[in-house]
Amino acid sequence: MQLRPEVEAVLRALACPDEVAAEVLRTCANPACVNLEGDSEAGLRLAACGRCGAALYCCRDCQTAHWRAGHRAECGGGASAVGAGTVAAGAAGNGYAAVMMLY
């Protein structure tokens, strides 16, 4: 039986979270992102927030929109700040917790 690619990716992340979790969980932190370029958002080149480094963005427009929508208040300027599309520092080593943060 063949599994869907996204299911296989989650299973790989659970098996070896340190190697695969970043690949599976990297998405634009802007909840209003509508960038549908390419096959999936996972293939986009993402840039980290220059202040906290935790939030990742697909483009400058998404970064600006998310900053104005509330990331400014959430952004602590350190690794403890967590963007909407990133893994919390405490869950980074725990594949199950990291995947569950998506839901």
Spatially, the strands of the biggest sheet line up as: 1-2
Calculate Rg over CA atoms: 14 Å
The proportion of residues in beta strands is under 5%
Note the run of SSEs as H and E. HHEEHH
Terminal Cα separation, in Å? 26 Å
Subcellular location: Plastid, Chloroplast membrane
Organism: Pleodorina starrii
InterPro entries: Phytol/farnesol_kinase (IPR039606), Znf_MYND (IPR002893)
GO molecular function: phytol kinase activity; zinc ion binding
Question: How would you sum up this structure, described in words?
Answer:
Strands 1-2 form a two-stranded antiparallel ribbon. It folds into 2 domains: 1-26 and 86-103, no CATH class; 27-85, no CATH class. It has helices at 5-15, 17-25, 60-74, 95-100; strands at residues 47-48, 56-57. The chain has 103 residues and is mostly helical. The protein is built from 4 helices and 2 strands, in the order H-H-E-E-H-H. It catalyses: phytol + CTP = phytyl phosphate + CDP + H(+). Residues 33-75 form the MYND-type domain. Its main location: plastid.
